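Dear colleague,

Thank you for sharing your sequence with our group. We've completed the structure prediction you requested, and as agreed, I am returning the results in plain text so they can be pasted directly into your records. Please verify that the sequence below matches your submission; if there's any discrepancy, let me know and we will rerun it promptly.
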Amino acid sequence: MRRIILILTLFLVLINGVVFAAVKTTKQELTVPASDGFSIRATLEYPKIKGKKEYSTVVLLHSLGYTSEWWENLPADLIKQGYAVLRIDLRGHGRSIYNSKLVRTSWKSMTNAAYAKYPDDVQKVLEYVKKENTKKSFFNSWAIVGADIGGSTAILASDKMPYKPKTIVLLSPIVETKGLYVPVSLAHLDNVDIFSISGTGDTGSVEAQEYLKKFAQAAFAEYTSEARSTGMLMLKSDKSLAKIITSWISEYL
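Please find the predicted structure tokens below.
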């Protein structure tokens, strides 16, 4: 409850006259080979701040059937707060559609065995960013925002990672989808607080929240958006949501 109150307080401050100047950024387009040679595409963007060598990073994992371009104003809000933003196109989505033989692969035709590679794909991208950016640090302090299957992937990938995120934000959480079962991995995240967001009338996500909360080992906060939609589409119909998410993340990074 304390965190929800703080979020709303910060949000009211943000909407009452705080205007950010334009932020100059550095953007890197990444192509990372997965374990099986599949090409995973991502975009790393962070503000140009003279002398700054360490950036807290927010990883964004999109909804099923969408791409990393659908995050509305969330990436810009995070960058204005000084964070680096890593947007990943999940396998079979957006620009991440070519296997090792350069054959196009769509999420629509993928088997559960292919979806099972999502957590490893994300880990490969993070390891690539760490390795290729030796002059700057991005993952000493980081967080993940994931929408539906992106949220499931966030929990499963965090369980695999040797360095854990400070917090995970779930938009329209799911207990299991495409064979990705979340509860066991969630139970392994001893010190990772969860912020779970569902849209108005989204009974499926609310039921998933109540179930997943039983497995959480740290705080599990819940918020109902005014949006009558699901996943990352909530950001389109609820313009306040990006700032609420940014305010939550600011407590940890």
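Summary note from our side: The chain has one domain: 2-250.

Kind regards,
the structure core
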